């Protein structure tokens, strides 16, 4: 835990008492603050009270003595309308911040030069965060990984030299971190997302920009420039005098880091040098993972990690569970768990990574279905459709060979049988549902775990090394 000493002797309201909210309560109390905890959910309030915190309905108390409102990132700050607690804070002139802002203030007080890597982007945040954490561990750092990837930042160990914090940040978290100042900031990409919480794509992009714009003096801003929003952001950072490293997986760069024929290349001053090879690394397959790897490599180089250590780290990266996770092989058939592919855009990354696909898809459908994936249909040898979306997807697939399997266990059995019988040398049984899981599973993790168990129970399946 990171005790928050910057509010010692003051009273702080905390609204939103899930994982990060409760962690904030504990960290503030450990640092000497008095905490008033609140939530719209009575069960969460009861849990906070059981943990020993004062709880209250913030609508009926005086805000005069509150030094800050610490807001959970899931609570609306601006759109579609500010939460009532935010309005109360504004009326009282009380600042509204989040748990990562508390971390930033603590770091500046006690270890301002401790390495702090912050990662954002519409897609690829979690893989890039996990990959950077893996690289820094391989390089010998005491690595603390958290934020949006799962562990609340204030549940990690405190900043100090030799210890690096690798933190994934959503746009919601950035919005609540006004003094965000990482030593290395990464913006992977920007595409339309979370407009309900930001109003417009322009505002969403502006929030993302703050992460790389706030990099501390002497630090490094790493920006993927394969979309227009990020190209403009990189140009603005340049004009502001930031140390900007541009990243591309689509085009060579005169200055920056790009990927060409499976090799990460660094260009500077008219010279180019090969940094690392991505060929044969199954956990980093596909163009989207090439971008993740290039950004992670740029972060590693900015931290002084050698190219040998970088290459070894890339090769030993196991990948994230449920994201293009290779869960087994039987003969020429590879089994891949991409249960995190919960919409068509995410599934497009998986389909683009293989050419002989026995595709398991379906679940609770999302708007648009799989119509945007028609360009990948020639890669599909057969599809196995499950859940509520099965009939809809069947209509979209048209002449693509497919069956309605209904359940995951039937789909796995039939896909494994057909893939093996095909005789193809690169056959892949791919779970990438392009759907939510909620019709048959509580979340995508449980769905992916079930897939892994079913695959590994098949006769002759071996783990992927």
Look at the structure and give the mean pLDDT. 95
* Distance N to C terminus: 35 Å
Q: How many helices? A: 15
Q: Helix proportion of residues, in percent?
A: 25-40%
Proportion of beta-strand residues = 15-25%
Question: Low-confidence runs (pLDDT<50, min 5 residues)?
Answer: none
Radius of gyration: 23 Å
Number of strands: 20
Task: Please give the largest β-sheet.
Answer: 9 strands, mixed
- Name the quaternary structure: single chain
Shape: globular
Structural class, please? alpha/beta
Widest beta sheet: strand line-up: 7-8-6-9-10-11-12-13-14
Short description:
The chain is built from 15 helices and 20 strands. With 465 residues, the chain is of the alpha/beta class.
Describe the structure.
- With 465 residues, the protein is an alpha/beta fold.
- It is 34% helix and 22% strand.
- It is built from 15 helices and 20 strands.
- The protein has a 9-stranded mixed sheet, sandwiched between helices.
- Helix 3 links the parallel strand 4 (66-71) and strand 5 (95-97).
- The longest helix has 16 residues, at 287-302.
- The protein is globular, with a radius of gyration of 23 Å.
- The two termini are 35 Å apart.
Q: Topology, pairings included?
A:
Elements: E1 11-15, H1 19-30, E2 34-38, H2 42-50, E3 54-55, E4 66-71, H3 84-92, E5 95-97, H4 99-110, E6 116-120, H5 125-138, E7 142-147, E8 163-168, H6 171-175, E9 184-187, H7 195-198, H8 201-213, E10 220-224, H9 228-239, E11 244-248, E12 256-260, E13 263-268, E14 271-277, H10 287-302, H11 307-315, E15 325-330, E16 333-337, H12 344-351, E17 357-362, E18 380-386, H13 390-397, E19 402-406, H14 408-422, E20 428-431, H15 444-456
Helix pairs in contact: 5-10, 5-11, 8-9, 14-15
């Amino acid at each position: 835990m990171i005790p928050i000493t910057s509010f010692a002797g003051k009273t702080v309201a905390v609204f939103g008492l899930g994982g990060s909210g409760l962690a904030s309560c504990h960290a503030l109390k450990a640092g000497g603050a008095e905490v008033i905890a609140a939530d719209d959910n009575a069960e969460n309030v009861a849990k906070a009270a059981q943990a020993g915190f004062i709880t209250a309905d913030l609508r009926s108390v005086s805000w005069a003595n509150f030094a800050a409102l610490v807001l959970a990132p899931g609570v609306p700050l601006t759109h579609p309308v500010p939460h009532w607690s935010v309005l109360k804070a504004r009326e009282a002139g009380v600042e509204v911040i989040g748990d990562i802002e508390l971390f930033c203030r603590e770091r500046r007080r006690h270890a301002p030069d401790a390495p702090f890597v912050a990662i954002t982007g519409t897609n690829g945040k979690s893989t890039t965060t996990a990959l950077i954490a893996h690289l820094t561990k391989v390089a010998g750092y005491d690595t603390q990984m958290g934020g949006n990837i799962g562990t609340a930042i204030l549940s990690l160990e405190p900043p100090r030299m030799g210890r690096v914090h690798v933190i994934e940040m959503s746009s919601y978290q950035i919005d609540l971190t006004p003094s965000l100042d990482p030593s290395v900031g990464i913006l992977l990409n920007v595409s339309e997302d979370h407009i309900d919480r930001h109003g417009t794509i322009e505002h969403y992009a502006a929030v993302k920009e703050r992460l790389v714009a706030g990099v501390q003096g002497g630090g490094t801003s790493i920006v993927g420039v394969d979309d227009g929003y990020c190209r403009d952001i990189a140009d603005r950072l340049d004009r502001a005098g930031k140390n900007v490293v541009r990243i591309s997986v689509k085009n060579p760069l005169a200055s920056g880091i790009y990927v060409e024929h499976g090799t990460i290349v660094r260009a500077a001053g008219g010279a180019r040098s090969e940094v690392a090879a991505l060929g044969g690394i199954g956990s980093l397959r596909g163009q989207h993972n090439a971008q993740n790897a290039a950004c992670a490599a740029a972060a590693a180089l900015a931290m002084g990690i050698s190219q040998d250590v970088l290459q070894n780290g890339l090769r030993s990266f196991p990948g994230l569970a449920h994201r293009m996770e290779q869960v087994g092989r039987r003969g020429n058939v590879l089994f891949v768990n991409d249960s995190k592919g919960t919409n068509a855009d995410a599934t497009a990354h998986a389909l683009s990574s293989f050419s002989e696909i026995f595709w398991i898809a379906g679940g609770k459908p999302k708007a648009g279905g799989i119509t945007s994936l028609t360009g990948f249909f020639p890669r599909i040898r057969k599809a196995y459709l499950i859940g509520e979306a099965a009939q809809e997807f069947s209509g979209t697939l048209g002449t693509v060979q497919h069956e309605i399997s209904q359940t995951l266990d039937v789909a796995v059995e039939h896909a494994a049988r057909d893939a093996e019988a095909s005789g193809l040398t690169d056959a892949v049984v791919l779970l990438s549902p392009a759907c939510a899981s909620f019709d048959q599973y509580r979340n995508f993790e449980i769905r992916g775990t079930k897939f892994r168990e079913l695959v590994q129970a098949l006769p002759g399946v071996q783990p992927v090394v």
